[in-house]
Amino acid sequence: MNLSVRLIYDFPLTDGEPPTRLVFARPRQVWCATRAEEVVGAMEHASARAKAGAWVCGFVSYEAAPAFQPYYRVPPRFADFPLAWFAEFTAPAQTSPSDAGSSGHAIDRTSDVWPGSEERDRARMWWCGLAQPHRVVVEGIRQSIARGDVYQVNATGRLVFTGNDHPGQMYERLCRAQAARYSAWLHIGAWDILSVSPELFYARNGMRIVTRPMKGTSPRAPEETEDRAQRAYLEQSEKELAENLMIVDLLRNDLGQIAEPGSVRVDELFAIEAYPTVWQMTSTISGHLRPEANAVDIFRALFPCGSVTGAPKAAAMKAIAECERVPRGVYCGAIGLWTPDDREVWSVAIRTLVGRRDRATWVYGVGSGVTWDSRPAQEEAEVKLKAAVIDRAGLATLVELLETMRLEDGVWFLYDEHRARALTSARTLHIPLDPHVFDDALRRCRTKHPTGTWRVRVRVSLRGEVHCEASPWPNDPFTTSVVEAGHRGEPRIMAISSEPVDRRSLWLYHKTTDRRYYDRMRRACPGAFDVLLYNEDGEVTEGTFGNIAYEWDGVWYTPPVECGLLPGTLRSHLLRRQELRERVLHLSEVGQVTRWCWLNGLRGIIPVVVATWPTTRSETAVGEGKETLH
Q1: What residues does the Chorismate-utilising enzyme C-terminal domain cover (predicted)?
Q2: Mean pLDDT, rounded, for 8-16
């Protein structure tokens, strides 16, 4: 078989037992359904092989739901991703799961290594998935609830990041970060699925079937007293309890379709489970299957799990199809296996990363249940909590757009430039930023601070919410003229970076809350005002928190954005006024520059000199040949 397949399951084979690591390779046969009409047939054939004594593993995508119930509505599926995939194996290689994710667990890092897998810089995640800003989605769902169309809808989106780490290493780190009971790494050709799900979809042992929906979230706290308080909040929150109970009722009804009459029972209601970043609420429902119920019947009754749809299920799925523009894929679907001794275990595929090796791009789904009591800020906070496992595992950091603005006596400096840049970045990164929301937030901030000079950090969340944080700013000398800047006292000293930037990096062109790279560059040059950056071709780009302008033959220039730099607001303003022109400057030309200026929308224009770093008292600044550094 040409398709490269390697599967690792860290699953309990019987509900209530600890997970066992199962490693599968070299499948005897594979069933791959890419159309809805193929799903049921693939599942029938695959589950029949388990009845005949084989191990069968696989997954079912959320968009496969109409194959089981034609009236379910789902977003359009990914064109190149299976709706369902199953593989038959003779037997697994089993190892102890007690140190899952450690180097002793048969994860092969020597084959199929992604390019650049030694890179350890953490990626940035950005948002895509909802057709409208999150606040609009939440309010629209609340209106549907008010009309009686639905009781609860699980609204989700996708976080995207690029990275070249080997999937096996990523899986190890995710397992350590999440400590989940239903973890799996599925390497299937070009695709890798890394799931660290804490949620059981269903487990069947003989004729007994158990489901354990998860609904209700509260953050963990580092201090013990506060941590206990967060748990107590979850135990007592009317909103969280109501959400959980709605899904319990839904699952009881779903199980009733395939269970013996009178056998469905709630074994445990509102249990609290601890995870590294969150407290989660679960409930356990069980039943005794009817003799004729098979794997397809179970999926027809239960899939997708009500915890990832809402209630009533069909109406909630209709709402989801209308507000989510990106398919869920395996996220919110199911990952599991059938064993030769008449057992099945399937997880709800949450906390799940999906990546393609030829693109080095990873997609992570996150969501929250919206009820009448929901508020956009609360739901956004819950989404961040659920994404924290990616940050905790060191894979990627959740970022927000950032604009740092100057407000002086009720007047915004460079308002149009900041607004245009934020909207452009939002479009590029699929952040649903409404221009009116941006304007309203800044209008409120200006009203609150009508006098004085203020530094205002404007953060745009991945769901389009705008937050302003104002702090007093000194009434410093301020100019936007390169001519006047020469009279602002002694020039500041800029060092030259010891390493280039990669102009292909998306994040050079967008200002975000993740400033770690720039902070690291400044820490490497203690005492310097800023650090001059350059790209892999030796072209000067910018400073770490300001753009650069330089005088050449009596004309003021600034490096083009294409060199790999942030399109600064003051830079854009001066270019539009034709006080600056664009020109590429190579490192070899730095010594020929007659004058330098540093540009920043908060601080204005400041004269600088450029020097290699570290320097001594006798070294000479580049561009200021007669001046020594002190």
Answers
A1: 136-386
A2: 92
Tokens coding 398: 């959740």
Residue 477 inside a domain? The answer is no
CA distance readout (Å), 50 to 20, 45, 64, 188, 349? 19, 9, 21, 20, 22
Residue of 508, 505, 531 lying closest to 519 (CA atoms): 531
Nearest-10 Cα torsion for 282, 293, 300, 34: 110
What are the start-end ranges of the H helices in 52-99?
Answer: 65-68
The range of the structural domain enclosing residue 420 comes to 401-472
- pLDDT band of residue 399 (cuts 50, 70, 90) is confident
Whether residue 340 is found in the same domain as residue 451: no
Question: Which tens digit of pLDDT belongs to each residue from 293-303?
Answer: 999 999 999 99
- The total number of structural domains in the chain stands at 3
| Within a domain: 110 | no
Please check whether residues 207 and 309 belong to one and the same domain. Answer: yes
pLDDT in tens, 212-263: 999 999 998 878 888 999 999 999 999 999 999 999 999 999 999 999 999 9
Whether residues 407 and 371 share a domain: the answer is no
Alpha carbons 467 and 461: distance in angstroms, whole number: 8
DSSP codes of every residue in 116-160: TTT--PPEEEEEE-BSS-HHHHHHHHHHHHHHTS-SEEEEEEEEE
pLDDT tens, position by position, 261-311: 999 999 999 999 998 888 999 999 999 999 999 999 999 999 999 999 999
Residue 281 pairs in a beta bridge with 272
The residue from 345, 365, 398 where one domain ends is 398
Please tell me the number of Cα atoms within 13 Å of 500 on its side-chain side: 15
What six digits make up the tokens of 319? 């709402």
Report the relative pairing of strands 492-496 and 604-611 from DSSP bridges: parallel
Distance CA 151, CA 404 (A): 41
- Which is more confident, 77 or 63? 63
* 3-state SS class at 466: strand
Per-residue model confidence as pLDDT tens digits over 438-452:
999 999 999 999 999
Distance CA 155, CA 308 (A): 8
Mean pLDDT across 398-417 = 95
Let me know how long the chain is.
630
Catalytic residues: 199, 215
What is the CATH number for 161? 3.60.120.10
CATH number at residue 522: 3.20.10.10
* 558 shares its domain with 416: no
Residue 627 lies in a domain: no
Do 208 and 186 share a structural domain?
Answer: yes
Average pLDDT over residues 193-199: 97
d(CA 336, CA 322): 29
Are 386 and 284 in a shared domain? yes
Task: Check if the beta carbon of residue 19 is closer than 8 Å to that of residue 98.
Answer: no
Q: What is the pLDDT of residue 612?
A: 64
Judge if 135 and 211 occupy the same domain: yes
> For the residues of 341-356, what is the DSSP string, one character each?
TSEEEEEE--SEEEEE
Q: Tokens 């005492």, residue?
A: 527
Q: Which of 348, 371, 398 is the last residue of a domain?
A: 398
**Within-domain flag for 111:** no
Q: How far apart are CA 450 and CA 428, in angstroms?
A: 33
pTM of the model: 0.76
224 and 320, same domain (yes or no): yes
Question: In a 10 Å sphere around its CB, with 0-12 CB exposed, 13-18 middle and 19+ buried, how is residue 574 labelled?
Answer: buried
